[in-house]
Amino acid sequence: MSAGADTPKVLFVDDEENVLRALRRLFRREPWALGFATSGEEALRRFEAEGPFDVVVADQRMPGMTGVELLRRLKTLHPECVRIVLSGYTDVNAVIEAVNEGAIFKFLTKPWDDEVLRATVAEAVDAVTLRRRCEVLRVRVEAQNAELAAINRCLEETIRQGLEARSAGLARAVLEAAPVALVAVGEDGKVALANRAARERLGDGAALGRAWGEAPGPVAGASPVEAPGWRGTVYRIGEG
Question: Which domains are assigned to the chain?
Fold first, then answer.
């Protein structure tokens, strides 16, 4: 049995070869990958060797592991697998108990009605297909949400930088127009801006990029002033 990644896989388990042949004939035209096993133990081995099956249809009365026991094991090992049991009337109590435990999706009695069995398996396959589509959509939505969050962060940062640049530009204009000598020192301790009055008083000491502490002239009397929008310190140079 070979199947593509998206092809539903259905496994039929029955210890009677003639039953498996009948099931093969019944489902041969379906666009699914069909597998067949003659015991619960073989079914588990096929799961290990070929990967999980999406739907398992198991006979109840088999030597060794019964169908209900197999499906209970699969509920633990592969809970996403849709589990269906075929049962004789004498096994109804055991099957009902398994249904109540959630180990079985549906059960059908033997001998089965072809149309009912075909419709039941098709319903199980449809449930698997829908679940896969929902998972794809969930992953896609999560990726889109992450992308949207990144875009929002980028937009917020761009707006923040724009506002800071605008605020800094306004602060520069105000400092330059001030009638008193003002020097703006950045957070790194270097002169970032000196207005015309400060340049006239300090000369080279007000050169951009120069350490404020190295500036010559009357900086000892400099006093900090409030300068909203400026990230650093603005000093007013007093009369010498």
Answer: 9-139 (3.40.50.2300), 178-237 (no CATH)
